[in-house]
Structure formats: C-alpha cells, structure tokens
Amino acid sequence: MKAILIARVSTEEQKEAGNSLPAQVARLEKYCQVKDFPIIKSFSFDESGYKNQREAFDAILDFVLEQKEKVAVCCDKVDRLSRNIFDKRVSTLYEKALQDQLELHFVSDGQVINSRISAVEKFQFGISLGLAKYYSDAISDNVKRAIEQKLRKGEWIAKAPYGYKNILVGDKKDICVDEYAKHIVHKAFELYATGAFSFELLCKKMKDDHNIVWSVSYIDKVFKNHFYYGVMVVNGQQYPHKYLPIISQALFEKVQLMKKSLNKKQSRYAGKPYQYRGLLRCDDCGFAITPEKHKGHVYYHCTELKGKHGAKWLREEAITEQLGAIFKSLQMPEDVLKQLSETLTEVHENKAAFQAKQFDALTREQKEVTKMMDNLYLDKLKGRITESAYDRFYQKFRDQTTDISIRLEQLQEAEDNYYITVKYLLELTTRAYDLFMGSEVEEKRQLIKLVLSNLRLKGENIVYDAHQPFDLILKSTDQQLWRP
Q1: Rounded-to-integer distance, Cα 114 and Cα 106, Å
Q2: 304 secondary structure, DSSP code
Q3: Residues forming beta bridges with residue 461, ordered by sequence position
Q4: Which of 194, 221, 469, 481 is buried most deeply by CB count within 10 Å?
Q5: What are the pLDDT digits (tens) for 122-168?
Q6: What count of other Cβ atoms lies within 10 Å of the Cβ of residue 166?
Q7: How many CA atoms does the CB half-sphere of 12 hold within 13 Å?
Q8: 196 Rama sector, left if φ>0, alpha if ψ -120 to 50, beta otherwise
Q9: All domains of the chain in start order, with CATH
Q10: Which residues does residue 458 pair with via DSSP β-bridges, in sequence order?
Q11: Cα–Cα distance between 136 and 399 in angstroms, integer?
C-alpha cells in the first residue's frame, strides 16, 4: 500500500522555528520505511485545524480522493488532521476508511483507522478528536480572557493607529504618541471641522503641506476612529484607553456632525470646483444657492423649488467683489491697533505669570504620582501587595498621570492658541482684503467661515452674520464707534 504524508502546524512561528514540520515529516518517513509503504506525496503546510475554511487541506483531500487504489494517509497525531470534531473533511476520510477505501495512520498516537477497527478503537478516535478540540477551545478562552483584561486596563491590542507608534519598554510592548504625526492628525480634524474642506481638498492639502499621500477612504477611517480622543472600540464595545489623546471629544463630535451634513444628497453640481458652493442660501426660501456655468462665467441662483419669487442670477465675480468689500471693512485705525497691541502685551504678562505658576504645580503633582507608582512597583516585587490590588492602584495612578499630561498639554495649547488668535486678528484687520483676494479656493472658503456665517443671497446682494469678535469690528468700522 502506498502512503500520503500530511504534516501541519497552526502558526507562522511554529513553521519558522522548524521544530514541528521537519520533526513530523521525519517520523512519518521512518514509519513508512518500517511499514514498507512507498510514499506518493508528502504535504507540509501552515494552517489552522480549528477553522472551517481550510484551503490547503481541501487541496490535499481532493488529491487523496483522486487516488484509484487504496492508500495510507499518514499523520503524526489526530490533532494534525483537525481540531474540529464537526469538520466534514474528517468525517469523509473516516467513512472512506471504514469502507476499506483508505486507511488513516496516526503515528505518535499509535492509532490506525480502517474497516477492521473495533468499537473501542472508534471510541478512542472520537475521544482524540474531542481532546484536540478541547485544547483549541481552552487556548481560545484564555486568549479572550487575556484580551478582555488588557482592554479593561486600557491597553490597546493591535497596531497603533496613525498618530501613535508601537514601542518596546524593556521586554513589554507599549504605545506612545508620535509627536510629528499627532500634529498632522490634529490639523486634519481642525481643518475639516471648519467646513471649508472636502475630503478631496484635504487630501491635496496633506500632500502639499506635509508630503503625505492620504486617500479619501483613509481620511474617513481616521475621522471615524474614537482612539484619538481616548476611547478604544472593539467589537462594538467602547473602552477608555490609557494613552494620551490627540484631540478633544468635542472636536471629534464636531467632525462627525460636519461629515453628516456634507454627506447629504448632493446636487448634480456638487462635484464641480465652484468657490462658494455650499456657502450661500436664498434669503427668501432658505434653499441652497446653485452654481452653474454659462458661456465661460459662473452664475449663482436659487432654484425656486418652493415657488417663483423673482430670484436673481449673480456672477461669481460679483460675489467675490461684495465679500472683498466686507473683508476690507475689517481694517482698524492705526491708533486703535497700537492701543490693542499694548493692551495685549500687558494681558500676556499677567497671563504668563499665572500659567508659569500652573505649570509648576502640575509638574510637581506629576512627579509625586510617578514616585507613588515606583513605590507601588517595589511593593509588588517584595510581595507587600497582591496582584489585583497592584492592578487597581496602578490604573488609578496611570489615570492621574494621563489627566495631568492632558492638562499640561492644554496649558501649552492655550499658550499657542493665544499667539495664533492674536496673530490672525491683527493680520486680518490689516490685510483682510489682500488675504481674501489672494487666497486659493480652500483658504478663501476657510477665511469666509472663520469670519462670516449664515451667508444669504437677497436679490443681488450678499447678507450675512459675523462671528465674534469680527462682528464688533465690522460694526465699529461702519459706525466709527472706536473708543478712545
């Protein structure tokens, strides 16, 4: 009788280590030599014997069933054939063996399945399959419990998302913030939250500013990831994680609302690169103003879906001219700018002293908590505290350090935002018109959203509301209400 050898391992690590496949094959070859079985073919492969989908084993089964004469199918153990008692492939081979069409030889188990086996041997084979499945089920349960424990402790179980990186601390794996990538993630959320950027424009800006190639689907994946504000989502369940968040939950929710509003059914012109698409509504009926191109010019108009109300068509150049006039009105008198700068300098000096005091207090608190964590670890090593108590106190201290780190970052962010806000305010009041007229489409749209809101087309005129503090500046410019 000729033989077909089957050697299998379950993991890539076993395959690479070489301590299982070669050993199995050597034992099987020696067994066939003793039994005087000529070997037709030897199969060595890496595949789980627990799952239902087994492409490699299906190919072997087809080869076995194609044989015209009776063969001996040789495996090292029963669990090398399968770890699933409900595997129909095993049932097929077992039935073929009972029908004397082939034999199953399990070398290390000392079992041979053929048409002559007794009831006890059949029972033994069933027990072997059951034990193989029990072994896999037990490992699966242990892995699930370990993963659940890690999630409860706030530890991520997969590759770190963009903005973070996987690191090794001693012999343990951990995750930390990628200082360069986190700013890109934060910037992407901030830009999209303004409503001035579509996914396509954001992809282009990432490429232009950071030489990073992001696809639309990748940006969508980033914006859906709760991890960035401190929450892991696994199988639909949320767990707070222990790593530093990159954005606030408020910014995350703002982006979700913006996505939802922009994902509404678009008009047939929605994909065209019109400067003011989506920014204007009709003052009469509230419908979005539609852009259309005729004879080389872009016109904006109301579709009058609620009924005719004498809507006008306005060229894009006319809208640009009106908006430009609004930005021109933002300019402050020189003496007011000078007084504002002096006041801001005085305010900053007081603020800087307060922030320095806050920074010192937070730094001291951070050092104290770190020292307590070190002492806790020593107590664990010396057996003065149980494992469960250590985990509980460690998580408490880790939460404290995370909170302190967030507050320190917010303190620095407030400092940065102070300068950014002042810089933008002063620059807008002196160069608002030039900035608007000289900007690219996406920057122009962002500038509009920064300063203005609720833009409407009333007849041939643009009417609007203004965000703070620009509303006060525009009002003061119109009425010359600057205080001495």
Answers
A1: 12
A2: -
A3: 458
A4: 194
A5: 888 888 777 777 776 776 677 777 778 888 888 888 899 999 999 88
A6: 12
A7: 0
A8: alpha
A9: 2-151 (3.40.50.1390), 153-264 (3.90.1750.20), 334-479 (no CATH)
A10: 461
A11: 36
